[in-house]
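Minutes, project check-in
Item: structure for the 143-residue chain
Input as provided by the requester:
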Amino acid sequence: MKLTDITEGTEITIKAYTEFDSIEFNTNCVQVLDDSILVEPVKREKDPINFKSDIVKIDIILAREGQAPMVWKNVSITYIGYMNQEFHYITAFTVGFPFNRRSAYREYIGQIGTVQIGVNNMAYDIIVKDISSIGFSFVTSEN
């Protein structure tokens, strides 16, 4: 998926990180411009954030309902004025890819089961979706 496939009004997350720390900001796509997107400016105390740095890397994350998030690595973000408005202008140099948050192989199971969360709580009917070396996932029709 190309970054320019993101549609107007779609919320994205900007992740700025170094080897030791990270911070995330949410913003919305305003429009596609050339091979980039314009997003609502990310500000702190009314001042736009400057994402230009030699040591900070920037990724864009697009959450998708029922699917793995899409990630664009090492994007460029510039604060610009365009059509008498302020934006952050984001350019990706590669296509996005689905991101496995667990960073581990998942084995699909698809088995019906029962789960009880806590000691004195009722049991719920579930379907075990998948397992990995660091966890598992299940779904239930209960809230």
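Outcome recorded: The radius of gyration is 20 Å.
No further action items on this chain.
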